[in-house]
């Protein structure tokens, strides 16, 4: 079985977690909304319809009570229903016509003791006690006090349907002598339950649609993230040459661009490191070979007693060691991070010091160095800028023919200070001009190829730039530095 690296597994787990989180983010709020909203709507509709049904039933009971003569109702005695007395029959006909007209299931009249006087639709005999009244004791108390009322609960009839009862008092000579009860079916519960089922179905459809949208969205996010993951893993394995493909999505596109910038920076640094290592190996090999050669000859001369020749060999060895030391120093100066010690620096004084440091070598080559610097104050690291300027002046002196002249000038230009170092040498060929700032690129036999890259690195660290313009007889290095405090925090390798 192929081994899956732990970091790859973690990426896959993260992508799986992303899909799961999107599903949860889409579905849980919708599910809660459907459940809470559906329940709230259902309960509200039920309460409103129940109240409306109770109001209607109590109104029918009140209308029926107006058709009941209280004194005659009290004359109905047990057995009248069996004997079918005329008073009892009149009440029954009245209740039946009202029941048929209103569509209620049952209408009955009871006295204040809760005994049945007339019952249409229920079939209880006259004089019987109604057990249903115990359920609505509080409502009947209000009715016997002269108010209309409706039962607060629904009850299930013998047919399995839900019913509700409305009550109204029967008044005779200013006093309540009984009550009319009207039972009606809660027929609205059928459509209400159907509405509830419809709402649940719509909620299920909405949840399914959202689940599909969440999955599509998760896959849409996972695909570019997988591509980014593949690019990151390639970079982690050391593949710095394969570009990171751009992504169309805004946020992921920004990540892709940043990852590509990081890859480019790593590739550039890796290339520079390889060049530096190759350059160091190449530059060190020759002096080490010379040291080995002349130390062997020195040993033979000493054994033979040729002390005069031995002194010359020692001088050659010392020169090679000094060259090795310069290679190491240049390499360390270019490679290490150097914090900027910013301080106000007078530009003319800075240029004057650099020219003075090169005066001896210029004199030895019969080259004149001219200085023309306009006054200005730079907020910079004086020692680092001096090193950069010395490299530029040294390069110009070495490129100048005997009797030549190097011109060093400085002038303010807007918010910048521009320093130019010009020589009248043969110039830099086009092919070499493109590589002049590469580490270890040099055309001189004893050059390390780090002077100009180091100067450019220091210029960039100060927020400036270093440019080369070259033609036969006129080569110019232009160093531009900002006037002010727009400096970076440290000398970092250029990209």
TrEMBL record:
Gene3D superfamilies: 1.10.287.130, 6.10.340.10, Histidine kinase-like ATPase, C-terminal domain (3.30.565.10). Residues 219-271 form the HAMP domain. It is found in: Cell membrane. One of its GO terms (molecular function) is phosphoprotein phosphatase activity. Its cofactor is Mn(2+); Mg(2+). Coiled coil: none annotated. SMART domains: HAMP, HATPase_c, HisKA. Residues 279-485 form the Histidine kinase domain. Its EC number is 2.7.13.3. Keywords: ATP-binding, Cell membrane, Hydrolase, Kinase, Magnesium, Manganese, Membrane, Nucleotide-binding, Phosphoprotein, Protein phosphatase, Stress response, Transferase, Transmembrane, Transmembrane helix, Two-component regulatory system, Virulence. It is a multi-pass membrane protein. GO terms for cellular component: plasma membrane. Pfam families: HAMP, HATPase_c, HisKA. InterPro entries: 2C_sensor_his_kinase (IPR050980), HAMP_dom (IPR003660), HATPase_C_sf (IPR036890), HATPase_dom (IPR003594), His_kinase_dom (IPR005467), HisK_dim/P_dom (IPR003661), HisK_dim/P_sf (IPR036097), Sig_transdc_His_kin-like_C (IPR004358). The chain crosses the membrane at residues 20-45, 199-222. It catalyses: ATP + protein L-histidine = ADP + protein N-phospho-L-histidine. PANTHER family: SENSOR PROTEIN CREC. This is Signal transduction histidine-protein kinase/phosphatase MprB. It comes from Corallococcus macrosporus DSM 14697.
